[in-house]
Structures are given as C-alpha cells and as structure tokens.
Amino acid sequence: MKIGAHLLIGKGLNHVFETAERLGCDCFQVFLHNPRGWNRSFRERSEIFSFRKAAKKSMISPVVIHMQYLLNLATSGKEIRLKSMRLLEHEMTESEMMGADYYIIHPGSHRGNGIESGVNLVAEGLKPFCKGKTRILLENTAGQGDSIGRNWEEIGSIIDRLGGNAGICFDTAHAYESGYDISNRISLHAMKDEIEKRFGMGYIQLVHANDSITLKGSNVDRHQHIGEGCIGIKGFENLVKDEWFGELPFIIETPKDNEGDDRRNMEILRKLGEKHGKIRI
Ligand SMILES: [Zn+2]
User: Residue 169 C-alpha to ligand 1 middle, in angstroms?
Assistant: First the structure.
C-alpha cells in the first residue's frame, strides 16, 4: 500500500517532487492546468525535462495526472466536445512527455442525451489515447445530474468499448455518494462481487481516499477528512484490510482547510496500513 496526496503545483512542475517528499508522500497526483479553465499552457521543454530528471532520482510512484474538470467527452454538444478533445490531446501528450503513470478522467455528463450515447462518445474520444505509456483510469462518480460512471455497469460499458485498454480509479466518496455502502464490510464485499462479475477487480488500479460529508446515495459530491465523514474510520479500515484494495496506492483529495491537513489524513491511512501489515515499517 502506498499513500499520497493531490498536490497543488501553482505555476509549475519544478518543485513537485520536493513538496511530495517533504509531505511524506509515496505517490502523488496533480492537475496540469487550472482545473476550472479551458486554458492550455504550453510548458517549456526544460520544465518537463527537469520533472523527468527529478522523477528518476525519486522513489515516488505512481505519478498521477488528473484531468481538468471542464473536460466533457460524453456530451454531443459540438463546441464542448471539440474543446474537450483538444484539451485531452494536449494533456495526454504532456502526461506522456512527463512519463506519468496514470491519467484520471471523469466520464463526463451526457446532458440529457442518455447513458448509451454518452458511453459511446466517451469511448470514441478516449480510444486514440489508450495505447500509450500513460494509462487512462476512469473514475467512478457520485452520480450528480447526468453524469456517467455512477455504477459499475456504466464504467464497464466504457471499458468494454475500449477493448479493456483502460483501468479504474476507485473514489471512495463517490462510491458512497452514488449508493455503495462501503462503510460496511458486508456491502463492500457485495460491491466487489458486482465488479468481479462485470469486469474484474484487476481493472481497479488506484484509490482516491476521501470520506464523504453527504449521505449514501445522495449523488452529491462533498469530500471530508478521513474518518470524519459518513464512511468513517471503520470503512477505511475495511478497505485497507482488503486483499485487493489494500495493495493499491491511496491518494487523498481531502479538504486543505488548515496547514497540516494532508499530513494528518495520510498519517491516519498509514497507521491503518501498518496495523494490517500493508506497509513495511
Ligand atoms: Zn476523485
């Protein structure tokens, strides 16, 4: 089990490994650009080279890139679709140049056109980028509005259309908010059975470890500090103990209200990992 955090890179990638090491991360995730804008910045090659150099020297892995929130491949609206494809191409090129291990994508919103149309559009959009070194991971969603990816059937349909050439990022808060009671060991196993029957747990390669402020099945995405939300410490302990989840990298996307929050949330997970023999001390 590895533990890391989503880090804010500000203006550049230059110090991200230093920051991650200072925080005690085994792995980390970043946005490449402002997550709520369409702007694509064109990075200097020197910045990417120094990132790669730092990566080579560091023990930290995996390196994870998270897509910008506006990117929506599921819509049939021409303008957003075109902008999304351009942004995806740009971010995938940069991720490959950086040597990133994973690129995480939210399947997006079909905006009233139906799940099937959305699933087809997402798969069609991702297909050209599925064979590179940076592996695409589809993230399950809280199920807000017309978003796709609220259950394993929807995620499985995209994986099928990609011929299995993508993995999955399992977000604990989103799973709970979309109706999977992962705070409870029995229902966690029921969910695993559902995944196993649909496509197999082997596709899940990363965990976004977030507690949830909102209730099970709320379809409202609100992250909380580990152990302080509805999933609770027992829920995270069940995941850490689990033979599949407990071997994966856990990356927190919990609130950064106060200095030290990331360190504290990672420490809680680390203690659980140590308790259950998932971390070698
Ligand atoms: Zn997430």
Answer: 8
